From TrEMBL:
GO terms under biological process: DNA integration
Pfam families: Integrase_H2C2
Single Gene Ontology MF annotation: nucleic acid binding
Alphabetical list of InterPro entries matching this protein: Integrase_cat-core, Integrase_H2C2, Retrovirus_Pol_polyprotein, RNaseH-like_sf, RNaseH_sf
Organism: Rotaria socialis
Protein name: Integrase catalytic domain-containing protein
Gene3D superfamilies: 1.10.340.70, Ribonuclease H-like superfamily/Ribonuclease H (3.30.420.10)
Amino acid sequence: RSGYSTNNSDLYNKSDKRNFLLKTNVLYKLASRGLTNIKVIHAPSKLIPEILQSHHDQSLSGHFGVERTWFLLKNKYYWSHIRTTITSYKESCEQCSKYNVDRHKPPGFLQPIEPPADVFQILGMDCYVFATASPTNTAQDTARILLEEVILVHGSPDIVITNQGTHFNNELLQSITNLIGCKHIFSTPYHPQTNGQTERWNSTFVTQLAKFCNDDHNNSDTYLPSIVYACNNGVRHSSGFTPYQLAVGRRPRHPFDPA
């Protein structure tokens, strides 16, 4: 990977020496996070490419953009001009350049659904994200996945929102929603904005998964759990938290976190 700088020559000078801590031969920076300071590793220049690679290129990181990569790094590492370095690294990523498209559209008149009061009270199917590989999209498989992957793990939601595909709009799924006592709402035909967050995720999911699949695109199920994990651990601008944090109440420890 070329085209980005990892210059980190300004380790620390006398003026900001108090913001650094040397412990067991590891240099830390005391970074301000709200009302507190946290200790983050001051990354040596030679390790920055490896850090960026593990927090952007790996399937658990998902090849996402600058903000999500920054969110993964900011509470663990510090180096000079870190955002600029992340931006340059992302712009030099061949997979991102190949698959990412401009998704900005003129603002419209969407009417968002009122946020629920409790976690998993409203389930948007098709924004903690659940995804599982299935050989078909039949009503039987859809009902089985809803039961095994969601209801039996997290309990019954009050509302399920889906599009009007036949794998959602059928007697079998209606029987399940009636059995667990939840309301099933369908998005308006040809207006996926009703379930806009899910439709947006579908588009993002296909793009991110394509970056890891082989040329024949027959190994997507291998990377599916990692992409879902990466999506659920990306900060949302609307809340300032990740879906994982809001659902579980803490940050996850990533496999590539420093010991």
